TrEMBL record:
InterPro entries: At1g67623-like (IPR040338), At2g35280_TPR_dom (IPR057136)
Highest taxon in the source lineage: Eukaryota
Protein name as it appears in the record: Putative F-box protein
Domain At2g35280-like TPR stretches: 63-167
Pfam families: TPR_27
Length: 239
């Protein structure tokens, strides 16, 4: 019994002797994979370090449902608010999605999605790229295709489609995204490589397949046509 007690004290002393910076680094790695493990921290030093902004920024909230925060308990709402204020990319992405598609706050939506995108959030990059293409204009098109190409290069396109679709199904859509028809008709008439097959043709968009990234690679379209069809299929989510 004395041996066990000595081991516990030694362990506790070792943990408590760690610097604040090291504790924060440890907790950040824990939080990035599971917020449950973070909440299970018992030592006072761990509890204090868990409130650090860097930890809140990197904590995983995947187990939280994607629903409006005013429908959840005060404790959960306060936690998510703290994550948002700390710049958690997943929280910023969810906030941006809700503000654009449900609350019609277009300007603030762009702020949240752009911040999440700049932190490397793939779904935010995907949705923000789609929105830019829907707006039309050379500058928006160029930036939108650049974002979507980055998603494609990361081999995350199929995953982004699935997760975005799941998110939209959990929301009350009040601001469905609309495609710029003028750009669509112009491209359909001028692109010599466009045909009746491909993503927007007979095959459609196989949401449930595991390797959807092949869709983009196998189509003999120009780059603009590929993403033009991607936008068309994305917009069908809201019909």
């Amino acid at each position: 019994m004395k041996f066990k007690k000595t081991k516990r004290n030694s362990y506790g002393s070792t943990i408590e002797s760690l610097s604040s910076d090291l504790l924060i680094e440890v907790l950040t790695r824990v939080a990035s994979s599971s917020f449950t493990d973070l909440f299970n921290a018992k030592l006072r030093n761990f509890l204090e370090a868990s409130k650090d902004t860097f930890v809140m920024k990197n904590i995983s909230i995947e187990k939280f449902p994607t629903i409006p925060w005013w429908q959840v308990k005060d404790e959960v709402s306060s936690f998510l608010k703290a994550c948002k204020e700390s710049g958690n990319p997943e929280v910023l992405y969810r906030q941006g999605m809700m503000e654009f598609f449900s609350w019609k706050k277009v300007e603030s939506e762009e702020e949240y999605l752009k911040r999440a995108m700049e932190m490397g959030h793939m779904e935010a990059s995907y949705v923000y790229g789609i929105i830019l293409l829907c707006k039309g204009g050379d500058s928006n098109e160029e930036q939108g295709m650049k974002l979507l190409n980055a998603v494609k290069k990361s081999r995350k396109l199929g995953e982004c489609r699935k997760r975005t679709r799941a998110f939209t199904l959990s929301m009350w859509i009040r601001n469905p995204i609309v495609k710029c028809q003028e750009l669509t008709s112009y491209h359909a008439n001028t692109c010599g490589r466009r045909n009746n097959g491909g993503i927007g043709g007979k095959r459609g968009w196989p949401w449930i397949e595991d390797d959807e990234d092949k869709d983009v690679e196998e189509v003999n379209y120009c780059e603009a046509c590929i993403w033009d069809d991607e936008v068309s299929l994305f917009c069908k989510l809201f019909r």
